[in-house]
């Protein structure tokens, strides 16, 4: 059985998977994550499979969407449709989801994009850059994907503006 539970203070297993699953340039420093959780802006769901830690989802409730910033499944829990199950559960809970993904330049990035496309997500054609999390790093080229809204330039700008304003504190 797979469960998703809201956690206010993430445990060591979430921290370790976060640091293992995402390259430094794609993630905030852990104290910043804890501060955002404390502010109530960022939320974390812990995934368990048969009572064992299986991964986590970090998300931001935005005015018109829910931005899934991180989804990580522990290697031991992968397979068997857990990713699909989690995405379907997130859609039930939150409705319109938005994701950032790497451009499909590596095999892993291609698999990730194909996974989301199989679930009905579409990547926007417009260029999108994640502002840097760390001083001295350049913006990171990513792609926005969404499901459940019109897929046009106006929707892209609305999503981008909400993410930049509420997630990255940019106007």
Automatic annotation (TrEMBL):
Record InterPro entries: Acyl_CoA_acyltransferase, GNAT_dom
UniProt xrefs under SUPFAM superfamilies: Acyl-CoA N-acyltransferases (Nat)
PROSITE patterns recorded: GNAT
The keyword Transferase is assigned to this record: yes
UniProt keywords, alphabetically: Transferase
Span of domain N-acetyltransferase: 2-147
Organism superkingdom: Bacteria
An example Gene Ontology molecular-function term: acyltransferase activity, transferring groups other than amino-acyl groups
Protein name: GNAT family N-acetyltransferase
